[in-house]
Specification:
alpha/beta; Alkaline Phosphatase, subunit A; disordered N terminus; Phosphodiesterase; Alkaline_phosphatase_core_sf; hydrolase activity; Phosphodiest/P_Trfase
C-alpha cells in the first residue's frame, strides 16, 4: 500500500502504517475551523474533513480538559469514570490533590485494545500520568514536574538523541507573557517531531497524540481578534496577536499534514476535541457571592487553613471552613460542595441538613444575571442527577450548568463579585469530531454526536470490542452498511470502586494533606485555571 502526501503525490511508506491515528485538538471547535477552511488557511484539515464523517460533539459538564479526555478514552460520562477536574473535588481536607491516571474509575479503550492484541503509541493525552503497563509506548501528560512520564523509561533520552526532544505540557504552558504565541507554534512542531520519530521507529497498531496549544492560545489571545470583546485592545504593531487564533490553527494544520504523511489510505484517522472554545467576558467570584449570602465565611490571614488549597486565600483573607456551609472545591469545576460534618475535615453542616442547604444555594444562583443582563446558569443540579454512575460520590454536590458560557465561575476570595475573566477565551460544551476510513461514510452529520460515542465508533471500525457497561455506542450513521459491529464483551468490563485500587479514597490516603505542588499550581494559575 502506498501512502499519500498532503499534495497528492504518493511515496513508499518508511514504516508500517498504524491501523488507526487519533489526533486530539484540545479546545478544537468547528466555529473556528470552518471559517479558516473556507479561507483556504487549513488545507490539510480541510481535506481530511472532506473525506470524513464529521459532527459537532456534546462534551461534558463541566466543559473541561480533565473530564473531556477521560470521557473520550473511556466512552463513559464522568459518573462512570470519576474524573471531574485536574484536582480531586471531594478532598476531605479541602486540599489540592492532583488527579492521576489511576483515578480513572474504570478501564479505558487502551485496556480493551491491549486485551485484544493491539499495540499502542500514546503521546500527551491529558490525565494519562503515570504511564500504565500497556503494549507499545507512552509519553504521558503529567500534572507534576517529573522526567518519569514515559514508558519505556528510556524514551525521553531516545527522543533527545534523535533531535526530537519532548517537553511535558505543564512545562510548555502559557506563563503570562504574550510572546508565548511564537513558542506555542514551536511547541506544536516539536510535538510532531517526537511523534514522527516514534511512529517511524516504534510502529504500533494505534497511535494517539493530543495537541494542546490551540486551547492555550485561545484562552489568552481571543480578545485581540474580537473587536466587540469587552477586553479588546489593538495588538501591538507587528505582533500578530490579532491573528493568534488563526495562526495556531495553521500550526496545527501543518502538524496534521505531517502526521497524515505517515499513514496509508487504509488507516482510520480521527480528529477530535475534548470541548470547544469561545469568547470569555466575565469572571464570577462565587466565594464572594456566597459570603454575601451568608453561606461562606472568611477570616483575616494571607494563608489558607492548614491543609487547604492555595485558592482558598486571597486579598488578605482566607475561607474559614468552620463557619462555612458551601464552597467551590476546585476552580473550573463548575461545582459546589456542602461542608458536611463527618465528610469534610471542618464540616459545619449536619448530614441531615445537606439537602436543605443545597436547595438554599440553588435558589440563590438560579435567577442570577451577569453584567450583560443574561442569566448565568440554566440550572443548578444535584450530583445524583448530573452524574449518575458508580463514581457520583467523587463529584461536587451541586453542578452549575452554564446558560452564559462567556462567564467563568472562580474561587477568588475578596474583591468584587464580578470582574473581567482571567481567560478571554473560555471552554464550550460543544466540541468537534471527524473520522476518515474506508469503512466510514463521508459527510457532515445532522445534529450532534455524543463524545462518548466517538471511541466506540473507532473500535467498531477496527473490528474491536468494548465493554457493555459504558455509555457510548457507535455512531451507526457514520459507518458503512457492510461494517460488522462486534458485540460488547463483558470480559473487558472493570469498574473500580471508590475505595479500591486507584479509587479516590485510596489515592487521597497516599497523598497527605498540605502537600500542594507549588510548581503545578503556579503553572495553572498563570494559565488562568486557578
Amino acid at each position: 500500500m502506498m501512502r499519500s502526501r498532503a499534495g497528492g503525490n504518493f511515496v513508499p511508506p518508511s514504516a508500517p502504517s498504524p491501523r488507526a491515528l487519533v489526533i486530539g485538538i484540545d479546545g478544537g471547535t468547528f466555529d473556528v475551523i470552518d471559517p479558516l477552511v473556507e479561507r483556504g488557511l487549513l488545507p490539510h484539515i480541510g481535506a481530511l474533513l472532506g473525506q470524513s464523517a464529521r459532527a459537532v460533539t456534546d462534551c461534558t459538564w463541566p466543559a473541561h480538559t480533565a473530564p473531556g479526555w477521560s470521557t473520550f478514552v473511556s466512552a463513559s460520562r464522568p459518573g462512570g469514570h470519576g474524573i471531574y477536574q485536574f484536582y480531586d473535588t471531594q478532598d476531605p481536607g479541602y486540599g489540592a490533590r492532583v488527579t492521576r491516571s489511576a483515578d480513572l474509575g474504570r478501564t479505558s479503550a487502551w485496556d480493551w485494545l491491549a486485551a485484544q492484541g493491539r499495540t499502542l503509541g500514546l503521546v500527551n493525552i491529558p490525565m494519562s500520568h503515570p504511564p500504565a503497563e500497556l503494549p507499545g509506548y507512552q509519553v504521558t501528560w503529567p500534572l507534576e514536574r517529573t522526567l518519569r512520564h514515559c514508558r519505556p523509561p528510556s524514551l525521553l533520552r531516545e527522543l533527545a538523541a534523535a533531535k526530537a526532544h519532548f517537553q511535558s505540557d505543564l512545562a510548555t504552558m502559557f506563563r503570562g507573557d504574550l510572546a508565548y504565541l511564537e513558542e506555542a507554534e514551536r511547541n506544536v512542531a516539536a510535538r510532531v517531531r517526537s511523534v514522527r520519530h516514534l511512529m517511524t521507529t516504534r510502529p504500533t497498531d494505534v497511535v494517539m497524540v493530543v495537541l494542546t496549544e490551540a486551547d492555550r492560545v485561545g484562552h489568552h489571545y481571543w480578545h485581540f481578534g474580537e473587536p466587540d470583546h469587552p477586553g479588546h485592545r489593538p495588538a501591538p504593531e507587528g505582533s500578530g496577536w490579532d491573528a493568534a487564533v488563526p495562526r495556531i490553527y495553521q500550526a496545527v494544520d501543518r502538524a496534521v499534514g505531517e502526521l497524515l504523511e505517515l499513514v496509508d489510505e487504509d488507516t482510520s484517522v480521527v480528529l477530535v476535541s475534548d470541548h470547544g472554545l469561545g469568547t470569555g467576558h466575565h469572571a464570577l467570584a462565587l466565594h464572594t457571592l456566597l459570603e454575601e449570602a451568608g453561606l461562606l465565611a472568611t477570616a483575616p490571614g494571607e494563608q489558607p487553613e492548614d491543609g487547604a488549597a492555595s485558592w482558598f486565600a486571597g486579598a488578605g483573607r482566607h475561607v474559614d471552613f468552620r463557619r462555612t456551609r458551601v464552597y467551590m472545591p476546585v476552580p473550573g469545576s463548575y461545582g459546589l460542595n456542602v461542608n458536611v460534618r463527618g465528610r469534610q475535615l471542618r464540616g459545619s453542616v449536619a448530614p441531615r441538613e445537606r439537602e436543605r442547604v443545597m436547595e438554599e444555594t440553588a435558589g440563590l444562583l438560579a435567577g442570577l444575571t451577569g453584567p450583560d443582563g443574561r442569566r448565568v446558569f440554566q440550572a443548578v443540579v444535584p450530583r445524583e442527577e448530573a452524574y449518575p454512575g458508580p463514581h457520583c460520590g467523587r463529584a461536587p454536590d451541586l453542578l452549575l450548568l452554564p446558560d452564559d458560557e462567556s462567564v467563568l465561575p472562580v474561587c477568588d476570595v475578596g474583591g468584587e463579585v464580578w470582574r473581567p475573566s482571567p481567560q478571554t477565551g473560555l471552554h464550550r460544551y460543544r466540541g468537534m469530531w471527524a473520522h476518515r476510513s474506508p469503512r466510514v461514510r463521508p459527510g457532515r452529520l445532522p445534529g450532534t454526536v455524543a463524545l462518548t460515542d466517538t471511541m466506540p465508533t473507532l473500535l467498531a471500525d477496527l473490528g474491536a470490542s468494548w465493554p457493555p457497561d459504558v455509555h457510548g455506542t457507535p455512531v451507526q450513521a457514520a459507518l458503512a452498511g457492510d461494517v460488522d459491529i462486534p458485540p460488547a464483551d463483558p470480559r473487558l468490563s472493570a469498574v473500580r470502586a471508590d475505595t479500591g485500587p486507584g479509587g479516590a479514597a485510596t489515592a487521597a490516603a497516599e497523598s497527605p494533606a498540605g502537600t500542594e505542588d507549588v510548581y503545578t499550581s503556579e503553572r495553572l494559575r498563570e494559565m488562568g485555571y486557578l
